[in-house]
């Protein structure tokens, strides 16, 4: 088991090509005053971009924890079972005390 805190950022999008196309359609068809297609992707990538935003990279480097960013089709089965209806989301995993 890891001895450090891990923060997971789970995207409401798929890592596959079709998933990215679907996300793009959802994002482009979203109304301006409504919810975003994936707030986590907006935060870390600025939406449709494949590279992380420089601002996010700088902030992530200052976080005193490991940061895991996953698309919903990359989630472990036990995690996806509980969280699929709640994406996007963030949660932390802390090591057990010995």
Largest sheet: 3 strands, mixed
Strand order of the largest sheet: 2-1-3
Q: Give a count of the beta strands, DSSP E runs of length 2 or more.
A: 3
Number of helices: 4
Rounded to an integer, what's the Rg over CA atoms? 15 Å
Name the poorly predicted regions.
none
Q: Can you lay out the helices and strands and say which pair or pack?
A:
Elements: E1 6-11, H1 17-29, H2 39-45, H3 54-62, E2 66-71, H4 77-83, E3 89-93
Parallel strand pairs: 1-2
Antiparallel strand pairs: 1-3
What this model shows, in words?
With 98 residues, this protein is α+β, with helices and mostly antiparallel strands. The protein has one domain (6-93). It has four helices and three strands, in the order βαααβαβ. The chain has helices at residues 17-29, 39-45, 54-62, 77-83, and strands spanning 6-11, 66-71, 89-93. A three-stranded mixed sheet has the order 2-1-3, covered by helices on one side. The chain starts with 5 loop residues before the first strand and ends in a 5-residue tail after the last strand.
Q: What's the gist of this structure?
A:
It is built from four helices and three strands; from the N terminus they run E-H-H-H-E-H-E. It has helices at 17-29, 39-45, 54-62, 77-83, and strands spanning 6-11, 66-71, 89-93.
Feature tags:
alpha+beta; 98 residues; three-stranded mixed sheet
């Amino acid at each position: 088991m890891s001895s450090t805190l891990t923060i997971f950022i789970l995207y409401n999008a798929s890592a596959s090509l079709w998933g990215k196309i679907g996300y793009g359609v959802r994002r482009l068809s979203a109304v301006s005053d409504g919810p975003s297609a994936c707030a986590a992707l907006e935060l870390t990538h600025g939406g449709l971009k494949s590279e992380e935003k420089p601002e996010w990279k700088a902030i992530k480097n200052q976080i005193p924890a490991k940061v895991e960013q996953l698309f919903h089709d990359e989630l472990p089965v036990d995690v996806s079972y509980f969280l699929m209806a709640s994406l996007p989301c963030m949660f932390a995993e802390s090591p057990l005390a010995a």
